[in-house]
Inverse folding.
């Protein structure tokens, strides 16, 4: 069984990457998913306004859980086992560490917006010790479900991997 690392930031490209993993499973690949969302540290303004680090931690945890929900729904609908984590830090540096901690065999993640890979995708390509597949966002980014929406069956089709 392959253990796939699936970073999720709530973008259409990230959900397309999870849909790609579902397509791989439907094609016969035995896999288990590790969904990860990394929430950046609070800004100085947020720290000053909130006055309580526990409140900030809870807000970040809840925000990450909301962003993971559509990806979890896609995996659940396909009957794929997974685990989820919301972590706090800088995504470009923390994701490679989490990849190692979970002992994943490969990464499938969104390429980012635009034609070229984003900063986090480039960091994963450089720092990951396992194969990394970057998945382009759907042509119509409006086709991807928003956090909290039901999964769109169109996303379960095989997206273009790069």
């Amino acid at each position: 069984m392959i253990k796939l690392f699936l970073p999720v930031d709530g973008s259409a490209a990230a959900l397309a990457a999870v849909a790609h993993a579902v397509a791989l499973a439907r094609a016969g690949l035995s896999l288990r998913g590790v969904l990860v969302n990394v929430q950046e540290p609070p800004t100085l303004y947020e720290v000053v306004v909130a006055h309580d680090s526990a409140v900030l931690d809870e807000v970040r945890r809840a925000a990450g859980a909301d962003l993971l929900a559509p990806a979890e729904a896609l995996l659940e609908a396909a009957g794929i086992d997974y685990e989820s984590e919301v972590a706090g830090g800088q995504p470009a540096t923390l994701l490679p560490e989490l990849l190692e901690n979970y002992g994943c065999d490969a990464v499938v993640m969104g390429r980012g917006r635009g034609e070229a890979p984003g900063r986090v995708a480039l960091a994963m390509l450089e720092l990951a010790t396992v194969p990394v597949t970057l998945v382009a966002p759907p042509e119509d980014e409006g086709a991807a479900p928003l956090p909290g929406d039901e999964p769109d069956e169109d996303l379960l089709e095989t997206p273009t991997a790069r």
Remarks:
- The domain at 2-156 is CATH 3.40.50.620 (Rossmann fold).
- The chain has one domain: 2-156.
- The first strand starts at residue 2 and ends at 7.
